[in-house]
Amino acid sequence: MKFLYVTALILFGFMETNAQQFIVVGPDAPVVGEAGEDLVLPCSLQPRDSAVNMKVEWIRLQLTQVDTLVHLYEGYEDKYDGQMESYRGRTALFKEELKRGNTSLKLSSVRASDEGVYKCFIEDKSAPWYEDTTIRVQVKGRGFHSWKIAIICISVAVIVLATFAFWIVKDKRTKKQLSHAECSAIAYLHYHSMRMKTLNLNKYSTSEEGYQRLIPAISNCTTAKPKVTPVHDSVQVHCPVRL
Q: How many whole angstroms separate alpha carbon 175 and alpha carbon 101?
């Protein structure tokens, strides 16, 4: 009995010594990532023994919600039960690197909400042994996307308003195209009306025949613009009265 007791103590001491020779190592300085880019959170065993048969668990710390699981590897596979919704589809371990004790986590498309403190927890149930380390993550450009969207919206609004203003001005400057009948009507009104003594030809655009029909109106006005207006290669409209 005494022999068995001593043997058990020796085995326990050996296992404890063997377990204590492994530590989990992470960076001392914060890991800085750019919003929208991928980020690797370094974590590894020292010495670099295989972690393939171990449990690797990444957890968020300092959160108010109950669910804090970022990523879980156990039983030679990834397990997503209980993983935080905001990390779904964005986390992965480097499976080939697990053989070398590398338990780093890849976090894709970093968000502003990813900033905080993470724990890398590793457990070898066959030892038994476990240890962890913490990594602080900082995200640069946390407000970049919001500002980018705002700038784009403002730019689009300015372009739309400028285009709208341009077409309004252009529309105002565009001469009204008159038909022959409309030219005859304008000429008739100006010729027979005592009140209509001003005729601005800059407002109208018509054919050579149309300008010919406006000549009677010009001859009866007291103010005409322009004084001499080129209408066509063969037509010149003059106002023979006082401007």
A: 80
